[in-house]
Amino acid sequence: MSGSSPSQQGRGGANQGPEAVSLDGSWPFLALLEELGIGIDPQLLRLALTHRSYAFEMGGLPTNERLEFLGDAVLEIGVTDYLYRAFPDYPEGRMAKLRAAVVSTVSLGRLARRLEIGPRVMLGKGEAHTGGHDRTSILADTTEALLGATELSSGLPEALRLVHHLFDPLVDEAVRSGAGTDWKTALQEMCAELGIEVPEYQVNGSGPDHNRRYEARAVVDGRARAACVGHSKKEAEQGAAHLAVEELSRRHQMTIPDA
């Protein structure tokens, strides 16, 4: 693999062009590729890090959007393959829910932060100054673009090997945590079985627009249950419903519905 790692850039990322991005192994993403013995072309790596806002400010450079399109397909193949092989008893609907949870924007953003992708993304000045380096949607899109760059550089089998290394554990965790379950529906079904009113949700948002957090509590039988924090209102409500389902299951010795 070629020498260096895209160096961390300041919040005014548009001051550097793709040719200024260095490539050394200090970046966790490149260190992982090195560990796995997977190569990536430096020019494709730079392209994968080129957000459209940067490309526009630099006079119309190519963007990472085509690589993102390719990487999205590679990711879907890898995760679907693992679900099919590892969980032979799961029906299509269950696998689809798990896959959606694992490849969601929130999940990809979380992985991108772990791999320190954000500081390497080349953004226009406006996007950078409004928190773009930690915006979940940008992190998710760039992660997919990096997978696309890996596929073009080293071929589909190697790109899938990277996907399996990164995402198989996330699938396993999703299975353990019930990430493929619609917890709000499950909670509603449990409430119906217990003869209590349909649950409601208390949600409060906080933080800047680019890093918004939501805290939700399910109100069941007139009492607010344990709180869950998420990056979106939907995620927070699902988490709060999950906590409420587990509480009701323990208290009433009920089986959790397969929603």
UniProtKB/TrEMBL annotation:
The active site is at D72, E144. Its EC number is 3.1.26.3. Keywords: Cytoplasm, Endonuclease, Hydrolase, Magnesium, Metal-binding, mRNA processing, Nuclease, RNA-binding, rRNA processing, rRNA-binding, tRNA processing. Residues 29-155 form the RNase III domain. Pfam families: dsrm, Ribonucleas_3_3. Gene3D superfamilies: 3.30.160.20, Ribonuclease III domain. This is Ribonuclease 3. The lineage of its organism: Bacteria, Bacillati, Actinomycetota, Actinomycetes, Propionibacteriales. The gene is rnc.
